Model the fold of this input.
Amino acid sequence: MTNPSALVQAATLPELLSEAAHIRDHHHGTRVTYSPKVFIPLTMLCQDKCGYCTFAQPPARLASPYLSPGEVLAIARAGAQAGCHEALFTLGERPELRYPAAQKWLDDNGYRTTIDYLVAMAQLVLDETGLLPHANAGALSRDELAALRTVSPSQGMMIESLNADLECHRGAPDKTPERRLATLEAAGELQIPYTTGILVGIGESRQDRIDALLAIAESHERHGHVQEVIVQNFLPKEGTAMHRAPACDDDVYLEAIALARIILPPEIHLQAPPNLSDDFGRLLDAGIDDWGGVSPVTADHVNPERPWPQIERLREVSEERGKVLAPRLTIYPEYVTAPDRWLDPAMVFPVGDRSDAEGMGRDDPGAFWPERTMDNAKVADGADVLVVGDESTAWYSGSPRSPRLIVPGPARATGRLREVLDGVLDGQEVGEDEIVTLFAARGPEVNAVADVADDLRRQAVGDVVTWVANRNINYTNVCTFKCRFCGFSKGPMSLNLRGTPYLLTLDDIADRTIEAALDGATEVCLQGGIHPDFDGDYYVHVAHAVTEAVPGMHVHGFTALEVTEGARRLQEPLADYYQRLIAAGMKSLPGTAAEILDDEIRATLCPDKINTEEWLEAHRIAHQAGLHSNVTIMFGAVERPVHWARHMIRTRDLQKETGGFTEFVGLPFVHMASPIYLQRGARRGPTFRETLLMHAVARIAYHGHIDNIQGSWVKIGFDGMQQLLQSGVNDLGGTLINENISRAAGADHGQAATIEDFQTLVAPLGRTLAQRRTDYSIVDRHEHLVPSRAVGEGTLGIGTNGRAPRRKKLAVIAE
Ligand code: SF4
Done:
């Protein structure tokens, strides 16, 4: 379309619908959103008398002018329990100006105005349930809007119509065009993500509708604040002045929706309520991309006679038309992802706590209660956490709950995603945009991505599922670095949340290696905090202690940070340092300390750690020295999908250069005891959809370059791993006796897995389980490493600085 005004004036309805759907598809793709919410009708008194309204009631019909705080909270809690994200406060406009009973109630309860009470109740709901308030309080002053902005991430008010002469608004002083437009404008000036809309069929003309849409568009162009526009159809209701008026004509309504899509800037989301149309699928044909709030708990108090369709029905109707349904928050993703501009500082964490990496609502079923203080339950290995208050029932990484079933499931991809997947199947390499598109998959699209990843897995490595018998040895939790996600480290600047700082002696490390060998391990994975007393020789001595205790034990250590720091403290070139580590027994380098390889994100997550280029350089030099290593990604804290894409592309580029990476390992952020989460600075880890996609997309992005994709059962759990194995994953990682780092961050999935656990996981999939070495060669079942001595017979001592004292001494550093 080149000339919207000409089209608006001259086109037929089918032409308008087609153009509107085209604009929607181009700007919003296949996604159709809804907001799972509860309605909280704070007061049904209203100073206005609108001819179509059944919401407003006189005081005589109400037990109380306002819901009490207890009633508000009871509704909100029911909504939170049912998995809602939004508390929609619906209320009449300024009832205290019309009804003395309303003013008396406010006076008696210590509130000056209805808006003061609304602010208090929004805060209460937010604090107690975590539901995000959306204040729908009508025409407000600038001060009122500003007060609500501190407790409500978004607000809204229907423009309805800008025709000042409508009969239905004769008794409604708040419905004048001037008041409505002034409110819309003030909301823009205050940078409030705002919802507005028009009512169709209340006596206005086609031109009135166009004028209202143009006014909304102009205000948005000035401020960028109109996140969505609702186009709602009039239906006559018993007991109202307009009960004999004809319902809004279907074609007029569809045309109004299409006009809205054509006239409004395309980024504005367009909503039509599905409960007010019998054939609501047609609304999609007119260009909407949002169904609005859908309540699994409360009635629509504005249209109580029209129950909401079940979410499943919305999903079916959306999918019948090639769309996918996705839950959003009350504030749309474009605004969630620019919090400095659009959110009061107090709202940033509550919004992030319910959002995923795209800024959409978390889509794991279940309740997301706010997590409260953790009691400092001290245990020896610094690993246990305690969350108090209501227990969330939704899945998150590290929780003991099973995730929802995504794979297997029906698969479908259309539009841009189909193009990307077809390109992958044709052998094309995915770039940043394509990877971001893959991560945006929802509903059956996720299965389409997983299916392609599963095919690529079969091509790359066949049906064998591998695992390695290993033991993690985290020699110290004392660390001079201040990674904000790390619940493991203890140090002068860390939160010291859990447990006692410790440092293993070289004999302890050797003993643990011997125990691991006796348990059948072929690898020890060595990583820990950066102790202030360590010089680079410490790591050489550790590698030596391990190989001396158990000749042939694969030393999988140390992180890029440890080797970079070790070489720096010795002022030795990294390449030379690697040679000494290799001589002492080091065989490969774990890919940890990568977190997100994007300096913008590292500045938040781990500001004093090595940067992206330093991590890549440590692995580049390791590969040049003949060491293998792997790529990890710790995802779900603060970053967005574009950062995941950059991480994959940067590591893939290095792999093209050196070929030294053996595998990719997805490490979902475990939030529970992480300092950055406790300081209200991170999300609650990835959703399960994101976790599954991380592995599937990695399989696609690294295809032809890295053959092995590993999932972390410690963080994802066995049920989740079974789905990942059908989505590109071919490796289960290690048995991991003593996995302290995930547990220190709050993960609940035990400390060790057995071969029986792995067999139970793999057998139903018809895949073959095989034990591998670190380098992915397969272990003969009779192979055993033989320790050089018994446990407890060591004489290496503590050696924090690499100098071994003569006698063994267990170091426990007092807090
Ligand atoms: S992640 Fe590693 S470097 Fe960072 S604080 Fe924790 S132990 Fe230290």
Remarks:
- The first helix runs from residue 4 to 10.
- Residues 550 and 787 are 4 Å apart (CA to CA).
